[in-house]
Amino acid sequence: MRFARLLLALLGLALATLAPLPTRAADLDSAFARIATENFAEIEAAIGDLAGTGDDKAAAALQALTDGALTYSPADKGVYMKTANGAYVDARTGAAPASQPSGLKSVRVNNRVRRAIEAALGSLTLLNPDPAKRLSAAEAVFKSRDATALPALDAALAKEADPRVKRALGQARAAAILSKADSSDADKVAAIDVMAERGDQDTVSLLAALRANGTPIVKVAAESAAATIERRIALLSSVQNVWYGLSLGSVLLLAAIGLAITFGVMGVINMAHGEMVMLGAYTTFVVQEALRTKFPGLFDWSLAIALPLAFLVSGAVGIVIERGIIRFLYGRPLETLLATWGVSLILQQTVRSIFGANNREVGAPSFMSGAFDFHGLTITYGRLWIVVFGLAVFAALLFVLKATSFGLKMRAVTQNRRMASCMGIRTPWVDSLTFGLGSGIAGIAGVALSQIDNVSPNLGQSYIVDSFMVVVFGGVGNLWGTLVAAMTLGIANKFLEPFAGAVLGKILLLVFIILFIQKRPRGLFALKGRAVEA
């Protein structure tokens, strides 16, 4: 008798253990049967049923629906997935049917169905072994705000060990609770506290509905959280503008620093300076084309190879211009302006004849691709490297001017050309090398600018006016003044753009500089010396 009871108990336990399997299979069959329709509401409900099964076949079917490859037979309600080779497999079993079905119709989707698919795929991958996929799934559920995903979120939260993924799961759960109509006020207030930690624009949009339609308690909590988030967003926006301004300032610094040398030492208004930048950019293009065809494995080193070549090419062209034209026009700034403007037109047409008038593609190495998030700030690697590169060029040039014999001679010529000549300094030689140095720095600026701007014969014209503004505002020939002016104008430009627009913002800056030099004609940091002060 006892043995019979024990046998019955074991049999009942086995049946209880196996019972969910046919039920789950029945649920999967029912969900597939519901999705075989043209009714969007039924399709959306079927997607939720498929996600609730947690079956791998459901995930494959939903992915096929996303790709537009899920079909059904109106005759027998069979659901099939179209493979890459054009054949069909049964979505329920994953096996090929005995004969290829005919008369199939695609399962239709609209925006609501797409959101349901995203939420369903998200809930199905919440327990994926890959943390990146779990994080992506949590973000998908957060955006869909699907309350039916709450059980899956609770299960995933109980097993999650990664802090970042766990935070994203908690935020997705909070969004689902706030979207659920029958959630209690206490649950909604707790969810609002969780959402406040996220603090982005999506959270503000979600809280806006609660501020309008929630209960008094929920409204107060939503308004308080929204006010905190909006203050944080405003602060982040200001910091982001500062970062954008610094990156723009680094571009202006690279474009203007060579001009500051030539203009400051020789008093030459070099309108061909932008073309030196352009030559550096085209040198980068030529180097990358050579590496693509001959040594593709070295492509990530293309910028490192292009930097010295761009310096030599632009520097050599600068020396030729100085020896062939500029040295006959010293002391006549108007003539140097006209002559170098003519040289700029010649260089543009030469490049246009060699490379064509169309923009040329210059690729970014792998270490300059992508972006990362830093406490809510989006920072691209390309801009970050340009900021670092601009400061490195500034430091290297400062070292040359302060710690080398050539730098000493250059500063002597800047402060008093006649006295330097009397002391045995070959001022024509200094002029030539100085012009070559400024042109070479413009060339390596072109290497950097090729990563953020179109490489075309007109590249230099985009920066020549801004470069003169930086040099005049900072103080002619003063490197520290050029650095401060470039960063100041870059940040000011980014703060003016949202209110005045890009064009009007530049006009306002130009008006400011005109008024400023009326008060301080020598700029922020004026050079000192007998010849300068005379």
The gist of it:
The chain crosses the membrane at residues 242-269, 298-321, 384-408, 429-448, 468-492, 499-517. The chain is 71% helix and 4% strand.
Produce the secondary structure layout.
Elements: H1 2-18, H2 20-35, H3 40-53, H4 56-66, E1 70-72, E2 79-82, E3 88-90, E4 105-106, H5 111-124, H6 131-144, H7 150-159, H8 163-179, H9 185-198, H10 201-213, H11 216-266, H12 273-294, H13 302-324, H14 333-355, E5 371-374, E6 377-380, H15 381-403, H16 405-415, H17 417-422, H18 427-449, H19 461-474, H20 479-500, H21 502-519, H22 530-533
Helix pairs in contact: 2-3, 3-5, 4-5, 5-6, 6-8, 7-8, 8-9, 9-11, 10-11, 11-15, 11-18, 11-19, 11-20, 12-13, 12-14, 12-18, 13-18, 15-16, 15-18, 16-18, 19-20, 20-21
User: How large is the share of residues in beta strands?
Assistant: under 5%
| Order of the strands making up the biggest sheet | 3-2-1-4
Global morphology: elongated
Average pLDDT for all residues: 79
Major sheet characteristics? 4 strands, antiparallel
How do the SSEs run, as a string of H and E?
A: HHHHEEEEHHHHHHHHHHEEHHHHHHHH
Work out the helicity level: over 70%
What's the number of extended β-strand segments?
6
Description:
- The structure is a single chain.
- The chain is mainly α.
- The chain is 71% helix and 4% strand.
- The strands form two sheets. Strands 3-2-1-4 form a four-stranded antiparallel β-sheet. It has a two-stranded antiparallel sheet with strand order 5-6.
- Strand 2 and strand 3 form a beta hairpin.
- Helix 9 runs parallel beside helix 11 (216-266).
- The model is unreliable at 1-24 and 529-534 (pLDDT under 50).
- It is a multi-pass membrane protein.
- It holds the Pfam family BPD_transp_2.
- GO terms for molecular function: transmembrane transporter activity.
